Amino acid sequence: MSNRLVAISGLRKRFGDNEVLRGIDLEIGEGEVVCLIGPSGSGKSTLLRCVNLLEPPTAGTVHAAGHDMTHPDVDLDAARRDIGMVFQHFNLFSHLSILDNIAIAQRRVLGRPKAEAEAEARRLLDQVGIEGKERAKPAQLSGGQQQRVAIARALAMGPALMLFDEPTSALDPELVGEVLAVMKGLAADGMTMLVVTHEMAFAREVADRVVFLDGGVIVEQGPPSRMLTEPKTERAQSFLHRVLHPVD
Amino acid sequence: MAAAQRGGMTVRQRRRLSRAVQYAVAIAVVLAVALLADWGRIADSFLRLDTAADMFPDVWVAFGNTIAYTILAFIFGMIVGVVIALMRVSGFGPYRWFAAVYVEIFRGLPALLVLFLVGFAVPQAFPGITWPGGVYGQVAIGLGLTSSAYVAESVRAGIQAVPRGQVEAARSLGMSHTRTMLSVVLPQALRIVIPPLTNELVMLTKDSSLVYVLGVTASTVELTKFARSELTSSANATPLLVGGLLYLLVTVPLSALARRLENKGDHR
Question: What is the pTM of this model?
Answer without folding.
Answer: 0.82
